[in-house]
């Protein structure tokens, strides 16, 4: 609803401010997102897989329109559903959603209620279909499957919210998987807050490994994970699927002793010492010995070495140092999670119902991926790592006025927009894409 309030600026009383500008939008860059959406077949793929329990008769908004509206609100940074009440007549949003008006917050809330586990699985399948299309376009020789868990704060009596000892607070503890080479969000699974890091990880990751082995046999998968995922079930799942892995091990007395035999704690020197070694090791819970790479570091003038251990099935041509270099690149995972949280509200799961929060998690994943695919496939090389906050500044948040003619809609963007050259560059690159 338009506000009739008006104020004068104190520094200059001649300047008046109100919100009655008419058919204006502050999110005109969504037209670029929509252009890429159509090139990729993003919304069409989601529509094909969206199957909800819908008993409505003659609805004003289709489920496909509601899904698209929520994703585009996330792209613009409007994480709260009630933002729709202000955007209801926005000329850009109505064009990308393909509806005369946007749905209100209560309509969006009822939309979430129509999801069930099957509908969530279908959206996961849609995400995989799009991942496959992008993977074929990029011709990636490898898939680096980075596993991690993260924390999502909860408030009040939210279903399945619980205390997590590692984070020392109450919330959810979702599993996430990204492609470490491209930043693509492969999969997410919402879990109660008290679940251990590796709980359910084999059931989570096995379908991904099976899928890429079946559909992309020429792609070499690699699983990377920290010590929270150091479980023999995961090693065995990777070995069964002929997938490489590098997973950090927690230090124990046996590993410590074996490492100290390689590099005893003798008299300190004035220089930092760093060694890379390996040995075969079999824990009591393992069915066979496995290769363990060891990094031993002693800072200058220190007495004791600090040892770090990684279990791997990488072939012998990978030296222990290369094994550690492969694992250390996993640090980008934290950036992906931060981007998903701060940019796409992955951590704003505020519903009382656990199942609705699973839907919100999936929508954040889809909004993240649409942005990541656009920047990696259509941005200039120097801007491919651009963060979502910067993308919003340079593409999305540009003012425009809608002017209607007999046959056309003219979106007249601000003449003083600083990033016009970048805006046109990205649009031109999108229109030149040929994605099969």
UniProtKB/TrEMBL annotation:
Q: Name the Pfam families on file.
A: DDE_Tnp_1_4 (PF13701)
Which domain of life does this protein belong to? Bacteria
In this chain the Transposase DDE domain maps to 9-434
Which InterPro entries does the UniProt record give? Answer: RNaseH-like_sf, Tnp_DDE_dom, Transpos_IS1380
What's this protein's name?
IS1380 family transposase
């Amino acid at each position: 609803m338009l506000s009739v309030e008006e104020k004068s600026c104190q520094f200059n009383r001649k300047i008046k401010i109100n919100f009655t500008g008419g058919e204006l939008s502050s999110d005109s860059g969504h037209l670029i997102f929509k252009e890429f959406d159509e090139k990729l077949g993003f919304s069409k793929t989601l529509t094909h897989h969206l199957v909800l329990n819908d008993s409505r008769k003659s609805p004003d908004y289709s489920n496909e329109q509601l899904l698209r509206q929520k994703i585009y609100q996330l792209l613009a940074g409007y994480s709260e559903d009630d933002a729709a009440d202000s955007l209801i007549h926005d000329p850009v949003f109505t064009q990308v959603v393909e509806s005369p008006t946007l749905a209100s917050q209560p309509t969006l809330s009822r939309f979430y209620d129509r999801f069930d586990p099957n509908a969530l699985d279908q959206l996961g399948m849609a995400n995989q279909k799009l991942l496959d299309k992008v993977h074929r376009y990029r011709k990636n020789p490898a898939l680096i499957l980075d596993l991690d868990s993260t924390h999502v704060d909860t408030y009040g009596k939210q279903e399945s919210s619980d205390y997590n000892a590692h984070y020392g607070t109450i919330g959810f503890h979702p599993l996430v998987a990204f492609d470490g080479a491209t930043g693509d969000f492969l999969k997410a699974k919402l879990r109660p807050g008290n679940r251990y890091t590796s709980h359910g990880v084999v059931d989570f990751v096995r379908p991904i490994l099976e899928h890429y082995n079946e559909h992309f046999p020429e792609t070499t998968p690699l699983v990377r994970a920290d010590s929270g995922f150091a479980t023999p079930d995961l090693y065995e799942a990777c070995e069964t699927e002929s997938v490489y892995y590098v997973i950090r091990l927690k230090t124990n007395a046996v590993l410590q002793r074996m490492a100290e035999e390689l590099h005893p704690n003798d008299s300190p020197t004035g220089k930092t010492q760093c060694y890379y070694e390996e040995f075969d090791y079999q824990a009591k819970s393992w069915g066979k010995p496995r290769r363990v790479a060891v990094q031993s570091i002693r800072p200058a003038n220190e007495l004791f070495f600090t040892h770090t251990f990684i279990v791997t099935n990488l072939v012998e041509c990978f030296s222990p140092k290369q094994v550690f270099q492969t694992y250390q690149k996993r640090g980008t995972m934290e950036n992906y999670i931060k981007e998903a949280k701060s940019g796409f509200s992955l951590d704003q799961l505020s519903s009382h119902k656990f199942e609705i929060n699973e839907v919100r998690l999936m929508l954040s994943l889809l909004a993240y991926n649409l942005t990541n695919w656009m920047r990696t496939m259509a941005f200039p090389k120097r801007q491919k790592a651009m963060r979502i906050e910067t993308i919003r500044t340079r593409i999305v948040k540009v003012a425009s006025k809608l002017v209607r003619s007999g046959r056309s809609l003219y979106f007249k963007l601000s003449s003083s927009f600083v990033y016009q050259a970048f805006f046109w560059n990205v649009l031109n690159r999108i229109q030149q894409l040929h994605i099969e």
